[in-house]
Design brief:
5 strands, alpha/beta, five-stranded parallel sheet
Amino acid sequence: MASLPHISVVDDDDAVRKSLQRLIRSAGFTVEVFASAEEFLNSDHLGATRCLILDVRMHGMNGFDLQRQLRQISSEIPIIFITAHGNEAARSQALKDGAMDYLCKPFSDEALLNAIEAALSLEVI
């Protein structure tokens, strides 16, 4: 039996983490949530993650810093940024740096699930 794609969520807002965990799990994926970029990097889920949902503004390392760090270690995990503080310059830079999508809160469940499906469709088998 094939394993379900593993999605990781990094957001410092507990309510957002719980909500996204329920949504992603209900869509048939396995999901792990992390309160910080550092927590994600120090976990054993980095290698298993097939898509990363990543908040832009967080305490400590922000989402853009994590994106840069993942690129430095040649990680090809597709990233979907989520933010309550969207601006076009940040969005453009995130996409230029390889993010799959950049969603502004509040976003619809459908928008996030479509972004996840698009990210997973890029995986090399």
